[in-house]
């Protein structure tokens, strides 16, 4: 358990992590959050459906964000974008790490406008890419959101053809799947086969 004084927190860069589900983040990204705490003041923003107290117990600030993960109502989505706008004004992060489609796109668009360094994780295709009408729109939004992204961690073997052809992600990207992580840097590739090495790679890029 790590706690920091106001002076210690002020000396660290402020890292905002935005995702769509606290349970999944606790189960699969807790070790990463704890490792990041050594170098950053870590703040989590997401819908909390559990584990908020556990995150706070290890010294991580939690900010609840209401979200319908699969919703496409334009008014609801506009409210989420506005909530993210207010979040960035409140937190004033030095850099941002996002997971899942809505945080990737909406935070990507906002951080580009505000010139905040931004790193994104594409963990899978999601339901949006299973619907032909949404696939084109989401690809366009990803391409726009990723125009100023620092790094994209691709964590799926399959990507839509248009997503790749239209270069929705930047030239430096990282692709991973269970037991194996493929790093694309220009045309060179290297492989990482453990969770701890995967965490180290993310730390190296931030």
Report on the biggest sheet. 9 strands, mixed
Overall radius of gyration: 17 Å
Q: Estimate percent helicity.
A: 40-55%
Strand order of the largest sheet: 3-2-1-4-5-6-7-8-9
Strands, count: 9
H/E order of the elements?
HEHEHEHEHEHEHEEEH
What's the rounded overall pLDDT mean? 76
Question: What does this protein structure show overall?
Answer:
With 206 residues, the protein is an alpha/beta fold. 43% of the residues lie in helices and 23% in strands. The protein has helices at residues 6-11, 22-36, 52-57, 74-91, 101-114, 132-145, 161-165, 195-205, and strands at 13-18, 40-46, 61-64, 95-99, 118-122, 151-154, 172-177, 180-185, 188-192. It has a nine-stranded mixed beta sheet with strand order 3-2-1-4-5-6-7-8-9, sandwiched between helices. The longest helix is centred in the middle third of the chain and has 18 residues, at 74-91. It is globular. Residues 174-194 have low confidence and may be disordered.
Summarize the SSE layout with pairings.
Layout: H1 6-11, E1 13-18, H2 22-36, E2 40-46, H3 52-57, E3 61-64, H4 74-91, E4 95-99, H5 101-114, E5 118-122, H6 132-145, E6 151-154, H7 161-165, E7 172-177, E8 180-185, E9 188-192, H8 195-205
Parallel strand pairs: 1-2, 1-4, 2-3, 4-5, 5-6, 6-7
Antiparallel strand pairs: 7-8, 8-9
Descriptive key words:
206 residues, alpha/beta, 9-stranded mixed beta sheet, globular
Summarize this entry quickly.
This protein has helices at 6-11, 22-36, 52-57, 74-91, 101-114, 132-145, 161-165, 195-205; strands at 13-18, 40-46, 61-64, 95-99, 118-122, 151-154, 172-177, 180-185, 188-192.
